[in-house]
Amino acid sequence: MADINIFKSSAYLLYKNPILFVLPSIGSIISIIFEAFYLVGLHNNNNNNNNQNYFPFSDIFILFLFFISFAIAYFQLILISRKIIPKRDFENKNYYNIIIFELLVIYSFYALTLADIGGYETDMRGKLVTASAKTGHFSIYISKISIQNDSLFVNIISFGIPLVLLLSIISLFFNAWMVQYILLIAADETRNIRSSILGPYQSLKNIVILTVHEMDNDTKKNIALLFILSTLISIIGFVFTDIAVIPVADGLSLYILQFAILNIIGAIYLPFFLVCLFLMFMSRPFHIDDNNILP
Length: 295
Prior knowledge:
By secondary structure, this protein is mostly helical. It has one domain (6-281). It is 72% helix and 1% strand. It is built from nine helices and two strands. It has helices at 6-16, 22-47, 58-84, 96-128, 136-142, 153-187, 198-214, 217-242, 251-281; strands spanning 145-146, 243-244. Strands 1-2 form a two-stranded parallel sheet. Helix 3 (58-84) runs parallel beside helix 9 (251-281) and helix 6 packs across helix 7 (198-214). The longest helix is centred in the middle third of the chain and has 35 residues, at 153-187.
């Protein structure tokens, strides 16, 4: 892998295959629509002073959104792998049911971790918002920290730095785990991995072994650079999620606008992030040419 620049190769692959941006874009559109729908229900319930059940069928709503996000993540990984991994490594079509189930296990851990962090982030943001009139779940949910309040600067830094680093580590770890699993399945030419537990365990073990024992200097450098880039994206995510950076007076409009911008950034960065991980963890050389184009 030392003879190629992974980041340039990833950018070129995406340039030649713009279809790899389609699924993240669809996911962003769905996320924005569902968030707007959720806010309408939350706002109506807040006006009715019913905070015990702030949104009808909220559990079903969240579960449905989870499976949509997993489906998008699954097909995105398959699309990218089809461009990088030889097609002959996926000849056994019956293998896809194992891939779906095992990826669902990994993705579930990832989603639960993000949900816990998101709940903590919302609570901390609500505590730092200084507007005294903001009461109720709806007001706390859409609240943003004003950057004009200098007294909150230290609190924002102390709250934001650990959160940004944690999100970067979690994102890199779980996405690397899923990518390593896809590569493990492709490399299993004898089709010996049949257990619903062995696949995720072995791919996690491969990451640990690679990190501790077998990582060369080029791979270390690439992972460090990717982590720095992911941290910058996490900083942008933190700013647009928690801080009022756009001069919009209405709190609801500000929330929706910054949420939409954040989703657009995610739809652009995610394909690049995943392609970089695939190229880093591949055991064989990969060379970009004009034939690496999805039909």
